[in-house]
C-alpha cells in the first residue's frame, strides 16, 4: 500500500503548512490535499516527483515508507531510527526557518510561532535553525551547500568580540540575508556584499544572529 497520503500529511504538519498552503506549492487545490491525506485518492506521478524534489526526499521513500520527522528535515543520517523524542529526551526544540517561511507575509518576529527542529544542540543563548536556500541572499564566498541546516546563536553583548569575520544571519520580517561580520572598533556591520550591509545596534539585536553550527546530509 502506498504511503504517499500519510507522508503528505506528515510533511505538511512538520513544515507548518495548512492544506491550502501545501496545495499552492504544487498548483493543486485544498480538496486535492484533503483527498490524499484521507486516502481517498493518490496524486499523479508528476505531482509525486515535484513533491519529492521540493522536499529533497527520495521518491521511493515518499511512496513506500512512513517518513520520520528527522527524515523529513533531512537529518536521517545523523540519527538512529530508534531515537524517540519526548519531553524527557533532552533534545532541544529549535525554531526553524525553511523555504515555507516565504509562503506567507510576515507580521511578527515572534520565533515561538515557527516550526521546530528537534535536535541535540545545547547552548545557553537562544538558537535559530535556518535552511540554506536560494531564497535567502548570501555572500559570494558563502561556503555552505544548498539545503544545509545552519544553527545560529543570538547576538548578545558578551559575544560581540567574537563576531569579526564570522558568518551571521539577519532577519526582520521579510528582510533577511546571510552575511559576514566586520568589526572596526565599536562599529559592527553584517555585510552581504559591497552594496548591502546592516549596522549592529544593541537596541536592534533581536534581528542579528551568529553562526553556531552546521549540519549537512552525509552521502
Describe the overall structure.
The longest helix is centred in the first third of the chain and has 11 residues, at 4-14. The chain is elongated and about 65 Å long. The chain is an alpha+beta fold and 219 residues long. α1 (4-14) crosses α3 (30-37). It folds into two domains: 4-67, 434 Repressor (Amino-terminal Domain); 92-215, Umud Fragment, subunit A (Ribbon), CATH 2.10.109. It has helices spanning 4-14, 19-25, 30-37, 45-55, 59-64, 69-72; strands spanning 92-97, 116-119, 127-131, 149-154, 167-172, 175-184, 187-193, 196-199, 208-215. 21% of the residues lie in helices and 26% in strands. Keywords: DNA-binding. Residues 8-62 form the HTH cro/C1-type domain. It comes from Sphingobacterium faecale. This is Helix-turn-helix transcriptional regulator.
Amino acid at each position: 500500500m502506498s504511503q504517499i497520503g500519510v507522508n503528505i500529511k506528515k510533511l505538511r504538519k512538520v513544515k507548518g503548512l495548512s492544506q491550502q498552503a501545501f496545495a499552492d506549492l504544487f498548483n493543486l487545490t485544498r480538496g486535492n490535499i484533503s483527498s490524499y491525506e484521507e486516502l481517498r485518492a493518490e496524486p499523479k506521478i508528476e505531482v509525486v516527483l515535484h513533491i519529492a524534489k521540493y522536499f529533497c526526499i527520495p521518491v521511493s521513500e515518499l511512496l513506500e515508507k512512513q517518513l520520520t520527522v528527522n527524515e523529513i528535515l533531512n537529518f536521517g543520517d545523523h540519527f538512529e531510527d530508534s531515537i524517540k523524542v519526548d519531553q524527557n529526551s533532552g533534545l532541544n526544540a529549535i525554531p526553524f526557518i525553511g523555504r515555507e517561511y516565504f509562503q506567507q507575509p510576515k507580521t511578527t518576529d515572534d520565533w515561538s510561532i515557527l516550526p521546530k527542529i528537534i535536535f541535540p544542540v545545547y547552548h545557553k543563548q537562544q538558537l535559530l535553525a535556518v535552511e540554506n536556500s536560494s531564497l535567502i541572499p548570501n555572500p559570494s564566498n558563502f561556503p555552505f551547500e544548498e539545503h544545509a541546516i545552519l544553527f545560529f546563536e543570538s547576538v548578545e553583548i558578551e559575544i560581540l568580540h567574537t563576531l569579526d569575520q564570522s558568518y551571521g544571519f539577519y532577519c526582520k520580517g521579510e528582510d533577511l540575508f546571510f552575511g559576514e561580520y566586520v568589526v572596526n572598533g565599536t562599529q559592527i556591520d553584517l555585510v552581504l556584499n559591497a552594496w548591502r550591509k546592516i549596522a549592529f545596534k544593541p537596541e536592534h539585536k533581536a534581528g542579528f544572529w551568529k553562526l553556531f553550527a552546521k549540519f549537512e546530509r552525509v552521502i
